């Protein structure tokens, strides 16, 4: 009889990185995966599940309007624990550093179920940055029987914290598996600029000028949602983007704006009237991959973007003061710029005005894997649960 492994996800990044693992475990002769959704971020999670064609076997549907971290944490612990008691999985897999991750791991620990932590060992060294993600991942690792580390640096972080090396496995990051899966799907389906523009809601004039086949003008893809930038941070980011389009009037900016009101407010107020900037709703993952592949470079505070964009040859200016992904900084594919307008403008100018520097950073090797992470995790679980 196959052993049941519960794969838990509640947000878009978790779904992206868990989808290829779910598919890999479906091919196992000894493991039966069950996809369990907490619904932490309902709309964006459902969007991404649709991209991969995944319908969760179970959905806890826990999202509530205006939910707070304490409320959500408590609901996930209680609901996940009740599900574990009823279904008794042989193991539980969580990914990353969200509230879903820590709360599900606590629930599994209370029920004495072995835990696998995908993307374990990422650290900034600052408990306030990112908040609360740094705390979530630090508390999850000691509970895990299997810590699936994306790099040797992440494994070393865990060993320094007293985590047994025997529980740490360097597997690469499954986001590369997901990226290659979606890009292959796009290549076979022939996704067009017009269809992407229609699905994402990009204005026709912007799409024609920057996205259409044969368009030559540079454009920047922006994402931003980190809590530590709420308030003054987002004000400065938006001011930087405005100034960038003034200094470079031929450059366009496409900004899929996160649904959080603390992001929507300053972004729409400061950037909404700029004709060089297209503000759109968050793009589904498939369209976002297409946009990453077409843009000149990215301005982002996203962890996933730091991992994905190098596989597409796109430099990333990271709008954070710290990053738990130093491999990209060390490799040169990413560069920290924080929310300081002068730094953002200086680094953007370098990529826009120096073709040699742009080409150098576009051709660097991605340090986060080769697309085989999911198969490595499957093999480790098959052996560990035999």
Number of spatially distinct domains? 2
CATH superfamily membership of the largest domain: Glycogen Phosphorylase B
Give the fraction of residues assigned to helices. 40-55%
Mind telling me which CATH architecture of the largest domain this is? Answer: 3-Layer(aba) Sandwich
What's the CATH first level of the largest domain? Alpha Beta
Distance between the amino and carboxyl termini = 11 Å
Written account of the structure:
Helix 1 runs parallel beside helix 2 (42-52) and helix 10 packs parallel to helix 15. This protein is 49% helix and 15% strand. The mean pLDDT is 92. The protein folds into 2 domains: 3-173 and 370-384, Glycogen Phosphorylase B (Rossmann fold); 190-362, Glycogen Phosphorylase B (Rossmann fold). The termini are close together. It is α/β, with parallel strands linked by helices and 386 residues long.
């Amino acid at each position: 009889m196959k052993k049941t492994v519960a794969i838990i996800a509640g947000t878009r990044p978790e779904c992206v990185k868990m989808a290829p693992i779910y598919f890999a475990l479906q091919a196992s002769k000894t493991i039966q995966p069950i996809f369990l959704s907490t619904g932490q971020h309902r709309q964006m999670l459902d969007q991404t599940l649709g991209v991969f064609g995944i319908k969760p076997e179970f959905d806890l549907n826990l999202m509530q309007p205006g939910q707070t971290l304490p409320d959500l944490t408590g609901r996930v612990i209680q609901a996940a624990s009740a599900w574990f008691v009823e279904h008794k999985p042989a193991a539980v897999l969580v990914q990353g550093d969200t509230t879903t991750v820590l709360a599900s791991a606590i629930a599994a620990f209370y029920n004495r179920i072995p835990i696998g932590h995908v993307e374990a060992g990422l650290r900034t060294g600052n408990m306030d940055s990112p908040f609360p993600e740094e705390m979530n991942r630090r508390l999850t690792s000691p509970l895990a029987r299997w810590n699936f580390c994306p790099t040797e640096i992440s494994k070393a972080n865990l060993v320094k914290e007293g985590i047994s090396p025997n529980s740490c496995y360097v597997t690469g990051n499954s986001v590369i598996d997901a990226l290659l899966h979606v890009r292959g799907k796009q290549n076979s389906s022939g996704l067009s600029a017009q269809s992407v523009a229609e699905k994402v809601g990009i204005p026709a004039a912007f799409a024609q000028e920057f996205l259409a086949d044969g368009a030559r003008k540079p454009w920047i893809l922006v994402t931003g949602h980190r809590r530590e930038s709420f308030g003054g941070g987002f004000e400065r980011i938006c001011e930087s983007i405005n100034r960038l389009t003034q200094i470079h009037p031929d450059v366009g900016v496409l900004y899929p704006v996160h649904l959080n009101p603390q992001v929507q407010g300053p972004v729409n107020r400061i950037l909404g009237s700029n004709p060089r900037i297209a503000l759109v709703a968050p793009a589904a993952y498939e369209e976002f991959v297409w946009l990453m592949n077409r843009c000149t470079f990215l301005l982002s505070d996203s962890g996933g973007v730091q991992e994905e964009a190098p596989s597409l040859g796109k430099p990333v200016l990271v709008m954070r003061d710290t990053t738990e992904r130093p491999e990209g900084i060390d490799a040169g594919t990413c560069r920290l710029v924080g929310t300081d307008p002068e730094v953002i403008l200086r680094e953007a100018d370098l990529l826009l005005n120096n073709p040699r520097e742009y080409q150098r950073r576009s051709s660097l090797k991605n340090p986060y894997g080769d697309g085989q992470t999911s198969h490595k995790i499957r093999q480790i679980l098959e052996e560990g649960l035999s």
